[in-house]
Fold each of these.
Amino acid sequence: MLGMSEFDTLGDTYERSAVELPFREHVERHSVRQAVGDVTGLTVLDMGCGSGIYTRRLATWGARHVTGIDVSEGMLATGHEREHAQQAGVTYLRRDATRPGPAGDPLLDGTCDVVVSVYALCYAVTEQELTGFLTTARRALKPGGRLVAMTLNPDYGRGVRYYAGYGFSLTQHEEGEGAPVTLAATLPGGLPMSVTARWWSHRAYEKAASAAGFARSSWAVPTVSETGASQYGSAYWTAYLNAPQAVILNATVG
Ligand SMILES: C[S@@+](CC[C@H](N)C(=O)[O-])C[C@H]1O[C@@H](n2cnc3c(N)ncnc32)[C@H](O)[C@@H]1O
């Protein structure tokens, strides 16, 4: 049973944040692009695709076929609307990726060269859900395939104003695995946006990847694009890059 999600009404706002918050364009998009590498001709799954920002980007970056999966009906509706308007040639499926079924998923399993996932793993509420996300990704991959997952950095900058210069805040009232972390942003024009993710340690992600059957996992930190550095000046990015709010988990199938 797939129920309501906090993302259901966020599609358009989330799309706006991807272009209006400079870190999303110049750090997040740039770093995901670098980590994903050459996808020309590949089949790619975008897990927790939301409104399809990266689903469409992956098609633009040369992937032969891209499928986006998400649990939120509202986010997928925005994805379908954009697909109707832009004809990126991508496909969307509604799935709860934290709950891979015992019978597998005939439309997805063993079909992908790469799984990309941007800010989805950190919405697992329990360790079981985290392992579920990674199991969905691992099952989708062909032998030799890889996962590139951007998620909340366990070592993000503490202090509610740490990211104020970048247009958002992170608030965490309790510590420990699975603790809620609320990201709040105000987009130009005063439009508020707030979502609550979960804090997981590097170890929790690595353990879940291993339990899901990934042979190896490693971490990469985001970098800023040349355009971002020249447009805003390198000093603007110093605090962000000293404690980025996101990190990238790379995991490979044996
Ligand atoms: C912060 S948004 C990121 C969306 C997209 N990856 C992007 O970067 O634009 C997180 C997304 O993860 C999705 N998500 C959360 N839990 C999920 C689950 N159990 N299965 C599939 N998608 C999930 C949410 O519905 C939401 O669309």
Note: Residues 5, 7, 14, 48-50, 53-54, 70-72, 75, 95-98, 118-120, 123, 195 surround S-adenosylmethionine (CB under 6 Å).
Amino acid sequence: MRPDVWQLPLVGGHPAFDLVNTVEPRDGAPPHDHLSGPAALLGWTVAAGLIDGDEAGRAGQVWRDDPVAAEAGLAAVRDVRESLRLVMFALVPGGEAPADPVATGAALVRLHERWAGAAGRAALVLGGGDRPGVRLTYGTVPAMLIPDRVAEAALDVLRTADLTRVRRCPVADGGCDWLFLDHSRNGSRRWCSMADCGTSAKARRLTERRRAARTGA
Ligand SMILES: [Zn+2]
């Protein structure tokens, strides 16, 4: 059974990669989109830490009052997700055909457009308390709060993450093709999650070794 969007593992090391991982599997069987509707997207955005509970309340109210705006927000998020996936798969090749440079360039243009729209709706606000300063806050328009935070996260990962540390859970060895940022000290993380794909791969290797031993004997 597929996990509820609330239980979807967040193993990408960055919310932008967790977003790309809301579709599975990427190969083989027809893909399942965990962001099946505006309500699922709202729940996932809170779970991923892109908005807090108060913001979810405001965005949810606006989306309930205006279902067209809700669907537009969901479409914007899916556009960012698919564009980011194309760019990342171009950077980190897997088993499939080489990335199409035209499609990758178009994806970068779309990401920039989504971010530019989000930046236009952002505001500079004075920080208070013990950390005085000025912050650029995305998501000041409730109907666009979620797509704007998602666009901010996508640009953040492209501009600030060490992209030599982007990995894909290896499909050829039984992994799930999810993306993750390898934060391990020596950069040797192989699986999206040891508890999930790593453990099942280990179990499979053990079975194969036992079978080989039996055949050998
Ligand atoms: Zn995996």
Note: Residues 83 and 109 are 9 Å apart (CA to CA).
Amino acid sequence: MQFVEAHGAKIPAIGLGTWELSGHGCSRVVEQALRLGYRHIDTAQIYNNERDVGEGIRNSHVRRSDVFVTTKVWTTHFAPSDLLRSAKDSLVKLRLSEVDLLLLHWPNPHVPLEETMGALAHVRDLGIARHIGVSNFTVALLERAVAACPEPLVCNQVEYHPFLDQTRVLAACADHGVALIAYSPIAQGHAKQNEVLTRIGAAHGKSAAQVCLRWLVQQNVAAIPRTSRIERLSQNIDVFDFELTDDEMVEIFSLGSPQGRLVHTPTEPEWD
Ligand SMILES: NC(=O)c1ccc[n+]([C@@H]2O[C@H](COP(=O)([O-])OP(=O)(O)OC[C@H]3O[C@@H](n4cnc5c(N)ncnc54)[C@H](OP(=O)(O)O)[C@@H]3O)[C@@H](O)[C@H]2O)c1
């Protein structure tokens, strides 16, 4: 497994996304993923599956210190006292004494960012989260968050796959030593229909989804693909034994555009 490093955090380059997984199915997939070698699990308060994720981690019998667990605070809990309560509540549900990474899930323009960043840093100081970061932050918001936060931010988790150009966000993350964690890294399954990705994959004996993940890893980006199928769990982590050429990387970059975004919310910021 490779790692993406940022401000002392060692983030396993491939993790398991758990959005829309729940109940016994979720805990089973988490357990199976850890048994297959995954060491990074991504959940969120709003996914309503932190209990199941925690159960999967325990059932795997992988040492807690070997697993990088991320959760996210929902936007309605960004006032300082709410944020602390919410972070503690996530620990209770996960049955963990700390998470490795705690993120603000989306920007919330209705709560002063400076207050929220102070509260997030406080949660880190208390040992509830080993590292802190943000998600769905634009370049301008990331700049403000970094300036307002007394502790380093280790990541900005954003949508990123070959069909979405994230050049500006990548550059801003690099400027601040912030890791980019790619969500929807195989374009919510759409990658598999793409002719370019399929052709490049065939040249390496890999699938289009694996090409997406490899393309991200080669940019020093971490990715958190989600699947509920055991055979795809194995496939999605099997991306460390081949390398895309410079020409293939460039060809995949040419698929990207600002219109390639799949995830939208009514309150989303004005994207870069
Ligand atoms: N911070 C945020 O706001 C945010 C937003 C969205 C997502 N996320 C996180 O990012 C994770 C991943 O994003 P995502 O769930 O939107 O999309 P994704 O991982 O890009 O795609 C998941 C979809 O692709 C299919 N799939 C998985 N592996 C495959 C493979 N090897 N070949 C073909 N199809 C495959 C899955 O179906 P099967 O289950 O049938 O395999 C599922 O329908 C989420 O689970 C969540 O943890 C965060």
Note: The radius of gyration is 18 Å.
